[in-house]
TrEMBL record, chain A:
UniProt membrane topology term: Multi-pass membrane protein
Pfam families per the UniProt record, alphabetical: BPD_transp_2
Superkingdom of origin: Bacteria
Protein name from the UniProt record: ABC transporter permease
Subcellular location: Cell membrane
UniProt keyword list: Cell membrane, Membrane, Transmembrane, Transmembrane helix
Bilayer-crossing regions: 25-44, 85-104, 111-133, 139-156, 177-197, 228-250, 262-293, 313-331
From TrEMBL, chain B:
InterPro entries linked to this entry: ABC_transp_permease
Location of this chain's protein in the cell: Cell membrane
Transmembrane segment boundaries: 16-37, 49-74, 94-113, 125-145, 165-187, 216-238, 250-267, 272-289, 309-327
Organism field: Thalassospira profundimaris
Coiled-coil boundaries: none
Keywords for this protein: Cell membrane, Membrane, Transmembrane, Transmembrane helix
Location, primary (coarse class): membrane
Membrane association type: Multi-pass membrane protein
Pfam families cross-referenced by the UniProt entry: BPD_transp_2 (PF02653)
Protein name, UniProt field: ABC transporter permease
Entry GO CC: plasma membrane
């Protein structure tokens, strides 16, 4: 569904790159993100004095999984050539609500989880309605709703604190056969949410809209429903992240800095994961690896004895390098007119 | 074209609605608290608004091009912290004299990198400026962690932020008026202004007309960085010191003010007078929410809700509500 997979192009790519050339742009993006992550993690494990213990992998996975869920939430609107700047606020709001209602016995906890997921769906649906039926720019609409969602989070939890069901928290922080449960959660989200979505009519419609909304409209694709679904699912994924944050920290906190950090890093993770900010190309699986790359930057700083306060600097440099690599195509373009849109 | 025609053209529908909302807000405020309409309060509001106005001036040009500058929070921080810490770089004598230009120059440097990335590397502005924001943050953290820099504002910065060069008009407001007049002139009367609107509409056509559009984009990003840094300098003078994250509360209000003023996020359309209206509207709204204190009414009902909740929720709802009135996109067909 992207322009670069035209047959002639495909043939030449196959000739030069073998099986890698046969991959779609999104698949190549995932592969690159995976390789970067693998390289970084190997360096990390190699520099670590104690080697890679299951405990260490668990900690790294927990940190990465939080950003991975928010990054997946960001991926869906980005594929439709939109954007969701409220994922961080939804994440924090879900965290605050979960620290209030995901408590008590198994039944109460289950209802609590459903409550938080419903809230996430509602947040996403509100974004969707404003963007689709209100016809506002996603950037400004979600910037405004993020302020509102954060305000509600503050009302739920004016001071950091709260509780969470202990069994849930304990389960999410442990690992089975060195596979952290957070990784299993990510796998479940991919298998039960991302893949069915990707294969559904509305999921494919989202890619078509991202490539060209005009063409999608002319082809009779249900644009409004597809966009609504993308934003609503985005809210759901962010709220799953919020529940996980509650389980990992045993508490809830309404902090603007957390919301901003996750929103910004999610965009970085999405780009590193091979999703195009211009829409139409992308994969939530890539975003998972993108998120892990962003998080491993911090871990690498620690093993290389670099002051951890410099983390934003390195994350920023990684981001700049990632987008600049993407712009290498400028050098290959023969007709300079193609550079300009 | 007659002068009155030029002036009338500056007030499009969005601008008029935004100014109308300012008047309505002030009238509502005056009913609760008559002091809202006193000249002292209004000048004080314009004083506060001028910080937002200066940063919005730069970002507006970038938005007119169809790009966006998300690096403003930490560019503001860089402006403030570099101006107060200039003695560490330029020595105790020059550091005091050149504090303000040094701070603005550092902001312009960030803008230059942004502009090079967006114009020459063709990187998406959103993600590139976001990355620069993180880099600027990292550099500032390194700066403060390294050798405990000077964070006190110089006498001149203090004077710039709170003094009155012309009696009755605070200096930041004067700076905003001069800056705004220059931008209005530039956008309406100069080649650069026409090119900015043209690039925002269709960069391709501008390129085919023989204009190096990349230079136009670069210039706007440099200007945006310099404006944000100037805001940082003024804020540091206002608070008498610079601190990390001093620019964080400015990202949402800046973009909101520009969009509320009728500038199209996709570029090519928008009047500077609209941005002025948006800035004043946002400032009055924030001020009213802290004066009216709706949380008191809820506390009487036994519901304890923090004040910030109202500020955030009302802020978000008002922005969306106003945009639904006049900021809607065309239907795809």
């Amino acid at each position: 569904m992207n322009v670069s997979s035209e047959p002639a192009d495909l043939v030449s790519r196959q000739r030069y790159f073998g099986w890698v050339g046969r991959l779609s742009a999104a698949q190549r993006g995932v592969l690159i993100a995976m390789l970067i992550f693998a390289a970084m993690f190997i360096v990390y494990g190699w520099k670590q004095a104690a080697g890679l213990t299951p405990n260490m992998i668990n900690t790294a996975a927990n940190k990465g999984a939080l950003l991975a869920l928010v990054a997946m939430a960001q991926t869906l609107p980005v594929i439709t050539r939109g954007l969701d700047l409220s994922v961080g606020a939804t994440f924090v709001l879900a965290n605050c609500l979960a620290s209030t209602i995901v408590v008590g016995g198994p039944v109460a906890t289950t209802f609590g989880i459903f409550g938080v997921l419903l809230l996430g769906l509602a947040c996403g649906a509100v974004n969707g309605v404003i963007i689709v039926y209100g016809r506002l720019q996603p950037l400004i609409a979600t910037l405004a709703t993020s302020a509102a969602y954060f305000g509600i989070a503050l009302a739920i939890r004016p001071q950091p604190g709260g509780l969470v069901n202990f069994e849930l928290a304990d389960f999410m922080t442990r690992s089975t056969f060195a596979v952290p449960h957070t990784v299993l959660l990510l796998l479940a989200v991919v298998v039960f949410i991302w893949i069915p979505y990707r294969r559904s009519v509305l999921g494919r419609a989202a890619f078509a809209i991202g490539s060209s909304e005009q063409a999608a409209y002319m082809s009779g694709i249900p644009i409004n429903r597809a966009k609504m679904l993308a934003y609503t699912l985005s809210g759901l994924l962010a709220s799953i992240g919020g529940i996980l944050l509650t389980a990992l920290t045993y508490s809830g906190a309404a902090k603007m800095s957390i919301a901003n950090e996750y929103t910004l890093n999610s965009i970085g993770a999405v780009v590193i994961g091979g999703t195009s900010l211009f829409g139409g190309v992308g994969s939530a699986v890539g975003s998972i690896f993108g998120a892990f790359v962003m998080r491993t930057v911090g871990d690498l700083l620690i093993v290389f004895d670099i002051n951890p306060v410099l983390q934003p600097l390195f994350v920023g440099v990684v981001l700049l390098v990632a987008v600049s690599l993407g712009s290498l195509r400028v050098l290959r373009i023969k007709n300079r007119l193609d550079i300009y849109r | 074209m007659s002068v009155s025609g030029v002036i009338a053209r500056q007030f499009d529908r969005a601008t008029l609605i935004a100014f109308g909302c300012v008047v309505v807000l002030l009238l509502i405020g005056a009913m609760v608290e008559p002091a809202f309409l006193s000249p002292k309060y209004l000048i004080q509001q314009l004083h506060t608004a001028s910080f937002l106005g200066v940063v919005a001036s730069g970002v507006m040009l970038v938005i007119l091009l169809g790009h966006i500058d998300l690096s403003i929070p930490w560019t503001i921080g860089v402006g403030g912290m570099m101006a107060t810490g200039a003695t560490g770089f330029l020595g105790p004598e020059w550091g005091v004299t050149l504090a303000v230009p040094f701070g603005v120059l550092c902001g312009a440097l960030i803008g230059t990198v942004n502009g090079l990335g967006v114009a020459y590397l063709r990187a998406p502005a959103m993600i590139f400026t976001l990355g620069m924001n993180a880099v600027a943050q990292g550099l500032m953290v390194y700066h403060t962690g390294g050798f405990a820099p000077q964070d006190r504002a110089t006498e001149f910065m203090r004077e710039l932020a709170v003094g009155h060069f012309i009696p009755g008009i605070p200096n930041p407001l004067l700076i905003w008026i001069v800056l705004g007049a220059a931008i209005v002139f530039m956008l309406n009367r100069s080649v650069l202004g026409r090119r900015i609107y043209a690039v925002g509409n269709q960069e391709r056509s501008v390129f085919l007309s023989g204009v190096d559009t990349r230079k136009v984009i670069l210039a706007c990003f440099i200007f945006s960085g310099a404006c944000a840094a100037l805001t940082g300098v003024l804020l540091a003078g206002w608070a008498n010191r610079s601190y990390q994250a001093m620019g964080d509360p400015y990202l949402l209000p800046t973009i909101a003010a520009i969009i509320l003023g009728g500038t199209n996020v996709l570029g090519g359309r928008g009047k500077y007078v609209g941005t002025i209206a948006g800035v004043i509207l946002i400032t009055i709204l924030q001020s009213m929410l802290s004066v009216v204190q709706p949380q008191r009414y809820f506390a009487q009902l036994g519901v304890d809700i923090p004040a910030d909740t109202f500020r955030q929720v009302v802020f978000g709802v008002v922005i969306i509500g106003m945009l639904l009135i006049y900021g809607r996109q065309q239907l795809v067909r």
